[in-house]
Specification:
Distance between the termini: 6 Å
CATH class: Alpha Beta
Oligomer: single chain
Helix content: 25-40%
Number of domains: 1
Structural class: alpha+beta
Radius of gyration: 12 Å
Order of helices and strands: HEEHEE
Protein name: DUF59 domain-containing protein
CATH architecture: 2-Layer Sandwich
Number of helices: 2
CATH topology: Alpha-Beta Plaits
Length: about 80
């Protein structure tokens, strides 16, 4: 199984987006991006490239508070299929 945390960190390292703490609960993945209003299609494309298009199922993009703080960011959630 792919180390999801490392794969996502590596993929976003060369983008203009900063990640918060990536969360994985069983196969549900939550990727917080610290920039508010980040392009949903661009975020999804980076994730699909890192993990494989077939591995990302039912991706949703929302704007919400990050880590329970005042920071508003963009969050991509999806089911991971190895």
């Amino acid at each position: 199984m792919t180390d999801i945390h490392a794969a996502l960190r590596d993929a976003f390292e060369h983008t203009d987006y900063d990640l918060g703490d990536v969360g994985v609960n069983r196969r549900q993945v939550r990727v917080p991006v610290l920039q508010e209003g980040a392009d949903p299609d661009a975020l999804t494309a980076v994730i699909e490239e890192a993990l494989g298009e077939d591995a990302v199922v039912a991706a949703t993009v929302t704007t919400e508070a990050i880590d329970g703080e005042d920071t508003i960011g963009t969050v991509v959630s999806f089911r991971y299929r190895p």
